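DM from R.C. (forwarded with permission)

"hey, sorry to bug you on a friday — could you get me a structure for this? deadline for the figure draft is monday and I only need the backbone to look sensible"
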Amino acid sequence: QAIFHKGPVVIFSWGMGASFPVLHVTPNVSQFGYSAEEFLSGRVNMRQIIHPDDIPKIVQQVNASRKEHVAYTEADYRIVCASGDIRWVYDFTRLIYDDPLISGHGYILDITPRKEAEEREKALLDRLAGVKRMESLEVLAGGVAHDLNNMLSPILVYPEILQRELDKALRGEARSVEILRDGFRQILLAGKRAAAPAQDLGTLSSGAASELRP
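My reply, with the result:
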């Protein structure tokens, strides 16, 4: 009794009903701001202290356990303390049947520190994933910039060459027209190559490849 009345584990039994009335509870339920007498007198019941958002989950679990005649249930849920504070608890209950289910005997344990640690870990993992995404984008941007610089070089260089050749042609010093043709051909090829990374980036952002046809 000293262990269970003064330790962190709250022993309880509850009866079937919409409010899950408490039939027995150890005095250390006071850690949540309630007295055992409040539960035993009916002024407070389990449904009142379970967080409203978690009640549907608990009711569904109890109904499913009753239907399948499950012997034990486990659940994590939030309770609202008398002070208004929200605490996470782990609930382990042995179900007592006399066709139908008549009561549950078990214990609850405050696991708030563990839940808070899990939330901090999740937040850190999300931040780490964000950093990795940024690193990937930096690598991608650097690679695209490098490729585009190489692909745009002919587009930037050949117009100067072609301008000089055209000036020579105007002065009657024209060389082979093949030089002009080759210059325009290189510009065209460079433009097509430069368009490929842009299409790849569009595919990456949309998450789906597409092919344009006339």
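R.C.: lifesaver. The mean pLDDT is 84.
me: no worries. The helical segments are 2-6, 36-40, 46-49, 55-68, 112-170, 177-206.
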